[in-house]
Design a protein that fits this description.
Length: 323
């Protein structure tokens, strides 16, 4: 690609450890859980808990979970996000340079912006791949990019991809993915369960639109599919009240009722620990332990054609006037 390229696109996802072992997971969790947008407890109270309790104990357990989903290409999230960037580059052409970064872990947002600038990009679209806005995801990616610009004397012009929770191209991509997943099953599920990442209920009370945007996604998808889509929230942590209903509790309930279920995670743009281990492995175990017998996990949009067509359409719209 020519050094003359003046436009860059930076796809951003949440992040992942560098390896499925306790030291790498500890480094990742220390960065992730120290973000004030992720854990909104005063740091003078939170850091002793993080450093004294969580970081000594949790990395070993999390490393075991990561090992169950790790691939020859490394972390599924990193491998898929990299594949998405390559596919977008091929689709969008040489006038735009596409890169990817992780909010936590590597490659980091700041160095990725520097690399785009070194390649001649003085206009950069930062694209957080979160359909639903949440301060702990979308906003913290914007924070990191903006904080890096504050260190630069010569700054690029920045744009940010807005949330797309009810965008027609996103709903269409979800519809195509879910229908393909259902068509591949040997049973017709009684319940179609959309599992979104959980957040403390307090964040909703403080004005975070995440919960409402998740519900809006499910309503629009339900209308597109012509069947009900239930919503649940996964990954509860700590003692605070979190958004409900909880995914694990709902799966156990469906298992006790012996109702079949197909679960998918529309808030994740790429499969990762929270989908492949928490839902496809552990969620199935919870469902079956409660007596359920027919369970299916439908993968995320990933770098498959429906998802990539969606990303390309959204990116091209945001580049209007630049390209």
């Amino acid at each position: 690609m020519s050094r003359a390229s003046s436009i860059g696109v930076l796809l951003v996802n949440l992040g992942t450890p560098d390896a499925p072992d306790a030291p790498a997971v500890r480094r990742y969790l220390a960065e992730f859980l120290s973000d004030r947008r992720v854990v909104e407890i005063p740091q003078i109270l939170w850091q002793p808990i993080l450093r004294g309790v969580i970081l000594p104990l949790r990395p070993k357990k999390s490393a075991h979970a990561y090992r169950q989903v790790w691939t020859d290409e490394g972390s599924p999230l990193a491998a898929i996000t990299r594949a998405q960037s390559h596919a977008l580059q091929a689709a969008i052409g040489d006038r735009v340079r596409v890169a990817y970064a992780m909010r936590y872990g590597q490659p980091a947002i700041g160095p990725a912006i520097d690399a785009l600038m070194a390649a001649g990009c003085d206009r950069i679209l930062v694209a957080p791949l979160y359909p639903q806005y949440c301060a702990a995801t979308t906003a913290t990616a914007v924070d990191a990019a903006s904080a890096h610009l504050a260190t630069l004397r010569a700054q690029p012009a920045l744009r940010f991809l807005p949330p797309y929770h009810d965008n027609a191209v996103y709903i269409d991509a979800l519809k195509a993915s879910v229908e393909a997943g259902l068509a591949a099953l040997d049973f017709a599920p009684d319940v179609l369960l959309a599992s979104f990442h959980g957040m403390p209920e307090r964040t909703r009370a403080l004005g975070d639109p995440y919960h409402d945007q998740c519900q809006a996604t499910a309503r629009r998808l339900s209308g597109a599919l012509g069947r009900p889509v239930e919503v649940a929230f996964q990954s509860r942590f700590g003692r605070a009240r979190w958004l409900e209903p909880a995914t694990d509790a709902r799966l156990a309930e469906l298992g006790r009722e012996n109702r079949s279920v197909a679960i998918f995670a529309p808030g994740f743009s790429a499969d990762c620990l929270e989908t492949l281990e928490e839902l496809a492995i552990r969620g199935k175990e919870q469902f079956e332990a409660a007596g359920g017998t027919r369970f299916a996990y439908i993968p995320c949009l990933n770098a498959e054609p429906p998802g990539m067509a969606m990303i390309e359409t959204l990116i091209r719209r945001e580049l209007a006037g630049w390209v």
